[in-house]
Amino acid sequence: MSTGNLLTDHPELYEERFPDPDRLAARWAEDTLRRHGAGPRVLDIGCGTGRDAAWLHHHAGRRVTGIDTAEAMLAHARCAHPGPDYHRADMRDFDLKAAFDAVVCLDSALLYCHTNDDLTAFLDRCRAHLTPGGLLIAEMRNGAFFLGNTELLGGPRTASFGWRGTTHTSHTTLWIDHGAQLLRRRRAWSADDGTPPQEQHSAWRLLFPQELRYFLTTAGFEVLDLYDHPGPRTEPPWREGDSPHGTTSSDRLHLVARLPHPNHPPLNSQHSDGDTTP
């Protein structure tokens, strides 16, 4: 069995497996950007196939730059979703020599910062590239959800889908590496066209809301929103006009933080883990 990442190595297959025809993730990001008055220059970290970056660029009038580490994804983005500037770069040490009004980090991309040093380096890079008052917007799995909740763990869970006449089948197992504070995944792929099976290993940092708030505050950010619902991956999903709410105990976590202007010290956040009462 070979190793690799079938979906990121084949971006068209990725988009087939995880369709988003209504660009829900990009529309949620745009709604958040508008709600907090962000300027037009946006950096999409972990841009993947580029479909969200391109929507923000063309439909929302943003000037978008996208970075990712997967060259196959970036090549697909430049061809299938042109418009933004795409660069191969690591979220922990990128230097684009440019300033942005907002950083967007969707689909748990932030959780590829597996260690405290990784997360500190990522926030340092965001701070270096954001203008005063710039926003950091992230959507991710919520580490607090896994405290005593095992419904997503174990396996393997099997799923199949067809693409270009071939049926692809995945067997996925999730488990928690408690010492490293990681949600680990092993996914074995097979296909009915005779291609060799492939096994993929990946992991995400399990960050708790207060832990995340601490890292952001220490890095000089002001946390504006930290909440469960609604979002592009919640059930029910976000819809136009929805407002943030929730107790940060469900599977998804949504973050909005701001880099204060040096002449304007941070205000006390009006939100406490999604509570919008004074």
TrEMBL record:
<dbReference type="InterPro" id="IPR029063">
    <property type="entry name" value="SAM-dependent_MTases_sf"/>
</dbReference>
<protein>
    <submittedName>
        <fullName>Class I SAM-dependent methyltransferase</fullName>
        <ecNumber>2.1.-.-</ecNumber>
    </submittedName>
</protein>
<dbReference type="Pfam" id="PF13649">
    <property type="entry name" value="Methyltransf_25"/>
</dbReference>
<dbReference type="GO" id="GO:0032259">
    <property type="term" value="P:methylation"/>
</dbReference>
<feature type="compositionally biased region" description="Basic and acidic residues">
    <location>
        <begin position="232"/>
        <end position="243"/>
    </location>
</feature>
<keyword id="KW-0489">Methyltransferase</keyword>
<dbReference type="GO" id="GO:0008168">
    <property type="term" value="F:methyltransferase activity"/>
</dbReference>
<keyword id="KW-0808">Transferase</keyword>
<feature type="region of interest" description="Disordered">
    <location>
        <begin position="232"/>
        <end position="278"/>
    </location>
</feature>
<dbReference type="InterPro" id="IPR041698">
    <property type="entry name" value="Methyltransf_25"/>
</dbReference>
<feature type="domain" description="Methyltransferase">
    <location>
        <begin position="42"/>
        <end position="134"/>
    </location>
</feature>
<feature type="compositionally biased region" description="Polar residues">
    <location>
        <begin position="266"/>
        <end position="278"/>
    </location>
</feature>
